[in-house]
Design brief:
Blueprint (H helix, E strand, L loop, with lengths): L9 H6 L3 H8 L2 H8 L4 H27 L4 H4 L8 E2 L2 E2 H29 L11 H12 L7 H23 L19 H13 L2 H18 L4 H21 L4
Amino acid sequence: MAQTDRSSSLTTILLFTHEDQYSSATEHAFLAKAGDGTLPDPAVCKWLVQDKYYQLAYVNFIGALLAKLDLLPSVFPSHSAERQVGGENLSRTTFDLLVDSLTAIRQEIDFYDKTADKYKLELQYAPPSKTTEEYMNLFADASVKEVPLLHGLVVLWATEHCYHRAWTYASRQTESAAQSPFGGGGSDTGAVAALHKEFIPNWTSEQFGGFVEKLASVTDAWAAQAGDREHDTCQRLWARVLQLETEFWPEV
């Protein structure tokens, strides 16, 4: 087993591995069409239905990660040798971030429903796809009791980072705000309007970007305490997320 490079943070190292897969996951044709306004409504609705399963699995995933935390050091910090992040106990910082994740996904579930109603999107029931089931299984496998917390945090950071990066790419496909529904023109209903007026601004917001950065910081802090074997597993988890992110986007 090769010795892990510790000269850079784990998340920085991961971003420079599997670069082709990273591009496939974050610059998919679905995203390009979402950005330039040519994505058909059925493709968007199909994707939104599958993303609802992702949201529900995400709730269980975060709950399982929270259960791994030992919060006693945050109660008696003077008797703890645990690493600090920004002057705070690492477990407490992680706890706060995971709670924020749960709050955000609760808001996201409501956001999906309200946006679908507002823009008259027809979200027909469909069972989870094979890729969706595999994503749900990854969340479950990365958060079981026997697995180090770091592994779950890497999966969480990876999926959120890719999501933010992907929709940032989509937003850049718009030639100009004046020519796009993103700038306020176009239809008031349908998938294109929902994407450009609601979804893309939400997923490319400064707030979401800041959340992803905090996830990276906390993940790197846990990684600094981990051994090479765990870092090798994190490399494999990163590659798996990239694969699933790529496959999760519908073919258009």
